[in-house]
Amino acid sequence: MQSRTFGRIGREVSEIGFGAWAIGASWGHVEADDAKAALHAALDSGMTFIDTADVYGDGRSEKLIAEVLAERGGEKPFVATKAGRRLNPHVADGYTRANLEAFIDRSRENLRTDTLDLVQLHCPPTEVYDRPEVFGALDELVAAGKLRNYGVSVETVDEALQAIEYPNVASVQIIYNIMRQKPAERFLGLAKERGVGVIARVPLASGLLTGKFKPDTRFDESDHRQFNRHGEKFDVGETFSGVPYETGLEAVEKLRPLVKGDATMAQFALRWILMNDGITVAIPGAKSASQAKANAGAADLPALDADTMREIAAIYDTDIAPHVHHRW
Prior knowledge:
Order of helices and strands: EEEHEHEHEHEHEHHEHHHEHH
Pfam family, one: Aldo_ket_red
Protein name: Aldo/keto reductase
CATH topology: TIM Barrel
Largest sheet: 8 strands, parallel
Oligomer: single chain
Domain NADP-dependent oxidoreductase: 15-316
InterPro entries: AKR, AKR2_Oxidoreductase, NAD(P)_OxRdtase_dom_sf, NADP_OxRdtase_dom
Shape: globular
Radius of gyration: 18 Å
GO molecular function, one term: oxidoreductase activity
Strand order of the largest sheet: 3-4-5-6-7-8-9-10
Structural class: alpha/beta
Number of domains: 1
C-alpha cells in the first residue's frame, strides 16, 4: 500500500482508504460481524484512513469503527467523520455553533475519543459557504480541543471552490471517478496548490464500476441504489454518480476491454483515480473482508498507460459527460 500526504495537515495516509457508509446503512443490511471483519481486513491490508459520518446508521458506523480499533490497539488510523445531516430540516440556519458542537460531541462519544481527527460538514446547503460564522464556529471547536482539523464534503465543484477560500478548510471530499471527471478540470490542481487534502468518494459509482451489475439486478429496499435512483431522498449524484443506470451499464461494457491482466474492473477504476496526484485518498466501501482486501489491491496495480487514459476520457466525453458534467 502506497501513502500520500494529507495536504497541509501533513499526516501520511494510505491512498486507498475505507469508506464506512456501507457498514452503517443505506446499502442493504450488513451484519455487525461482517462489517467488523471488513474493517479488520482493510487495516490488515495497509489502509490507514477511515471515512464515516454521524448519520451512517444513526451512529452505527462510528460505533463499529470504535469497536474494531479497541480490539486492535496500537497506532490508530486517521478517522474522518462528518456532521450536519442530523438537522431536520437540513437548512443553513441549522449550522450553528451549538448544533455543530452537539453533533461533534456525539461523534466523540461514538468513536471513543476526546479529539476527532477530522470533521467534515456533510454536504451542507450551498448557502453555508456564504456564512463565515459557520467556519468560525469550527475554529472555536478546534481551539476547544474537540477536533484537530475540519473540512467539507461537497456535491459540486463550485461548492468545493468556495469552500477552499476559507483558510482553515483542510480537506474537501468530492465525488470523483471515471463517471465524474469534472473535479480534475477545475478543482484538483488548485486544491493541491493550496495544500488541501482531497478525498475521492463514490469512487466506484455506487458499484457500477465493479462491472457486476446487469439490467435486471435488483437491490434491497433499504439500499439507496433502489430508493434514491431518481433523487427521491437526497442528491441523485450520490447514487450511481448521477448517471442513468442503463447508460452506466453501457459505458462499463465499453470500459471492460481496457482492464488488463488479473485486475478486476473495480481495481482498474480505483487505479484510474490514483493517476491524479491531486487526490489524497479514495474511499471505496466494503461490506466483507474479501471486498476490503480487493480494494486495497488497487494500490499495487501499475500505472495506466497513456492510450488507456485517452480511451477512458473518450468514453466519458461521449457517453457520460452529457448526463453529469454540467450538473456537478
